[in-house]
Every structure is written in C-alpha cells, then in structure tokens.
Specification:
Length: about 210
C-alpha cells in the first residue's frame, strides 16, 4: 500500500481544538485507490518544529503525495492554497512562544513556490459535492505558510506533488464556520481529486477579493 500523507495542526491561539486535525484524523486509512491510502498525522503549531517533523514524516513514510491542512480563522470555505511565500510575519506567538517578524522561511530561497496540486480541479469537485470551496491566493505568513513553503522547497524536482488547504473554524468557534461532517467530506473530495487528476483544468476558481 502506498501513502498519501495528510496533515492537520494542533490547536493554537488558546483554542482547544483545531478543525484541521479533527477532520484529517477522521480520514486516516481511507483508500483513494486500490494501492493508495491516507495516512493522517498531526503537526505542532511551532515555527521551530512543524516543518522539521513534516520533512521527517516524508522521509519515513515515503508518501506519493503530501497535503497539509490548517485552520484559517475567518475563512468561510475550504481554501485550496495556490502559493507559499518566503516570509514569516507572525501576528501572534506560536505554541512555543516564537513570533518571527519579517524573516525568511528559507534564507536565499525563491520569493514563492506554487502548489503542485490541481487546485482548480479540486475547487470544482468540492463545489460539485455541494460544499463551499475556492482558490486562495495567500496562505498567510504564520506557521501554515512556513510549513507549506518548506514542503514545496523540500519536494522541488520530485515526482511527489504537494500543497496546502486552509479550513474554516467549527460552528462553536462563533466565526465563519463549517460543520465537521461537511468539512471531512469536502477534504475527502479535495484529496481524492488531487490524487486522481494529473492535468489541472483552466477555469475561474478564485474569489473576487
Ligand atoms: N493555522 C495556522 C497555523 C496552524 C493552523 O492550523 C496558520 O494558518 O498559519
């Protein structure tokens, strides 16, 4: 059996749950095809350790695809990220108290990396399943963007495609939200579409602002 590595984050900013992990852990073991199944892992919300752990997991599990997910507070849909940028600019401290401001993710690295997932196809498939989704043009400048950038940096030139998805809060957060069962189904559709689609489609999938 081959592995599609799917990660979610631990809670941060005084939250007690992180919907990215709550959803991803329910997808552990899901078979995407006869020979590929999802392996779910949690990442710490810390600049010093999250990307290191992800890269270690890639070495250990030798996945055929890697999709990281995180909570995007205020997001109202499943946001398929297009681009990771080479900037850390933390609005709040991470779970280890680090708050890098205007530092590079990778010193001397390119300004940005694009997702290598078929982002438009993923948006379309999730929408066709009746679940809100869009392409997002920024993954922010906190731990999620850092992990996304390090992920793309680590896999440059590799046949393993990778990317990042931000998810809304849960209804009890009082923020724009999505129910957990819908989130799980939306992520399942997004991940399955990523795995089964080689060439992306060309159509609108972004938001107006
Ligand atoms: N969201 C944060 C970090 C962890 C998470 O789930 C972010 O968007 O950077």
């Amino acid at each position: 059996m081959k592995t599609l590595l799917l990660t979610g984050f631990e809670p941060f900013d005084h939250d007690v749950v992180n919907p990215s992990w709550e959803a991803v852990r329910l997808l552990e073991g899901v078979e995407l095809s006869e020979d590929v199944r999802i392996v779910a892992r949690q990442l710490p919300c810390a600049f010093a350790t999250a990307a290191e752990i992800l890269i270690q997991l890639i070495e250990e599990l030798k996945p055929v695809m890697v999709i990281a997910t995180g909570l995007g507070p205020g997001r109202s849909d499943i946001s398929i990220e297009r681009v990771a940028i080479n900037v850390n600019d933390a609005r709040i401290p991470d779970n280890l108290g680090a708050q890098p401001i205007d530092t590079a993710v990778v010193e001397g690295g390119p300004a940005a990396y694009f997702s290598t997932l078929p982002i438009k196809s993923m948006v379309r498939a999730v929408r066709e399943a009746g679940i809100a989704a869009s392409v997002s043009q920024t993954a922010g400048t906190f731990v999620c963007n850092q992990v996304f950038y390090r992920l793309q940096h680590a896999l440059v030139g590799s046949a393993v495609r990778s990317g990042f998805i931000h998810v809304p809060g849960l209804p009890e957060s009082g923020q724009p939200s999505m129910a957990l069962t819908i989130l799980v189904e939306g992520l399942r559709v997004a991940v399955s579409t990523a795995w089964h689609t080689r060439a992306d489609i060309v159509e609108t999938g972004g938001r107006v602002s």
